[in-house]
Design goal:
Length: about 180
Amino acid sequence: MDMITEAKQVARHEAARAGKAAKGAAAVTHGEYLSFRLGGEEYGIDILRVQEIRSYEQPTRIANAPAFLKGVVNLRGVIVPIIDLRVKLNCEQAEFNDFTVVIVLNIKGRVVGAVVDSVSDVLELSSDAVKEAPSMNANVNMSFITGIANVGERMLILMDITQLMSSSDMGLIDDNS
């Protein structure tokens, strides 16, 4: 895909999101999602946020960092923070193995790596396949969950990775970006 086509696709996608937000519509959208596993659950994120997928390498640890921040790596001259989504989302602790990967994301112009158990595939979901996430009590933060999709026998939890990585407790992305 050439850069102009890709830029047009990103612009259409962002315009559609802005239109839904302006109308007060639910965050449920259709489009292409990268699916990955965290423990026994399968999640999906907007493919347009994914820069690349890399095998896991031990990052350089940062002193006094929260448990979910594994450290930083040098990615072609850019220092990239590595977030373990398993720890951040309170999933069962998984071992680092040959399937463990880092999804390199571009969030509001900032490059961030997210450790996941494995990457499954890229899925194109229609709006019919995506259902609104159930509402929960005030003690459960579901603000980054945009919907639930049934894909064959699998259930896919769709998340707004931008909202998750931009949350104030992460301290990674400035809201003014």
